[in-house]
Design a protein that fits this description.
This protein is α/β, with parallel strands linked by helices and 316 residues long. Helix content is 40%, strand content 13%. It is built from 13 helices and nine strands. The chain is globular. Bound molecules: phosphoric acid mono(formamide)ester and norvaline. The site of phosphoric acid mono(formamide)ester (CP) has 9 residues, from helix 2.
Length: 316
């Protein structure tokens, strides 16, 4: 059996493949309903969620529907997993009925084992490690704003080192844009960890990926500022107060934004916490593109579905 077309991480796709996905997504932005015959008529997508989601599950359900297929929402609590059916049997059963699985899990082992057992493509709908579907939508937003001369674009990442950070690192490694990371020293990957190795690898591939000493250094010359919740799904809730203390100087406020390029935009994957990681003034301000970014989840999910379900080929 051929390996299914899993959509796991952006570093598994070449710059040419990412460009083809973005071009396909742009093509599917309007009109929302494709001309007949719908390219994924009769196809079924299972949406298996082990954690909360607003954008990911709704945009994927809408995307498969608009492409002519159907989505089945599967909250983990409604399967037999918690009454003793094994993960392997669950993945095998789901594979009997559907063409692909969108899986969100904050347990990395669960996710990896599901991928290993699934006989149909699995799409990473967010893990503790990465969030590639979201960053693909961010890339479309950047491309719509600044064009696709990636080497001329600088993105500043401000805040924790988390699943979004890693997907940005993967994207910058492949596309070559400058990525300036400003992360509190206590939250940076320690020497000897897989994240430290990832940083070394991506900086070797793209020397424009830099670690900055301050948020101000990161935003200088930046075309886009982006941040994320200080407390991700699956994080230890008891660590929240300490996180808030560690990240105070990383809140994105107008005074910081003013030090970026005059045409710089603000991005946030959402959900946002106003006046925690970003001021309401910036999030709701004229240079915020968060709703364009959220809207871009729909066409980018379509591109991902077309590829995973075999209706789109990508260059190597
Ligand atoms: N950005 C994002 O993935 O949002 P949800 O958690 O609402 O899916
Ligand atoms: N880092 C965030 C992203 C939410 C879309 C989280 O994992 O909760």
């Amino acid at each position: 059996m051929a390996t299914p077309r899993h959509f796991l991480d952006l570093d598994g796709f070449s710059a040419q493949a990412l460009t083809a996905l973005l071009t396909t997504a742009a093509h599917h932005k309007a009109p929302r309903r494709p001309a007949a015959p719908p390219p994924l008529a009769g196809r079924i997508l299972a949406l298996l969620f082990q954690a909360q989601s607003t954008r990911t599950r709704i945009s994927f359900a809408a995307a498969i529907g608009q492409l002519g297929g159907q989505g089945i929402l599967l909250p983990r609590s409604e399967l037999h997993l918690d009454r003793g059916e094994t993960l392997a049997d669950t993945a095998a059963a789901i594979s009997c009925y559907v063409d692909a699985v969108l899986l969100r899990s904050t347990e990395q082992n669960f996710f990896d084992q599901f991928v290993a057992e699934s006989r149909v493509p699995v799409i990473n709908g967010l893990t503790e490690h990465s969030h590639p579907c979201q960053v693909l939508a961010d890339l479309l937003t950047l491309r719509e704003t600044f064009g696709d001369n990636w080497h001329a674009i600088r993105v500043a990442w401000l805040g924790p080192f988390n699943n979004m950070t890693r997907s940005y690192l993967h994207a910058a490694e492949q596309l070559g844009f400058a990525l300036a990371l400003s992360v509190p020293p206590a939250l940076l990957p320690k020497t000897g960890t897989p994240d430290h190795a990832l940083l070394t690898r991506v900086q070797t591939a793209n020397p424009q990926i830099t670690l900055c000493d301050s948020p101000e250094e990161a935003v200088t010359g930046a075309h886009a500022l982006t941040t994320d919740t200080w407390h991700s799904l699956g994080d230890d809730a008891t660590a929240h107060a300490k996180r808030v203390e560690q990240l105070q100087a990383w809140r994105v406020e107008e005074s910081l934004f003013a030090q970026a390029n005059p045409d710089a935009i603000f991005l946030h994957c959402l959900p946002a916490h106003r006046d925690e990681e970003v001021s309401a003034e910036v999030l709701d301000g004229a240079r915020s593109r968060v709703w364009q970014q959220a809207s871009n989840r729909l066409p980018t999910q379509k591109a991902i579905l077309l590829w995973t379900m075999g209706s789109l080929d990508l260059p190597a």
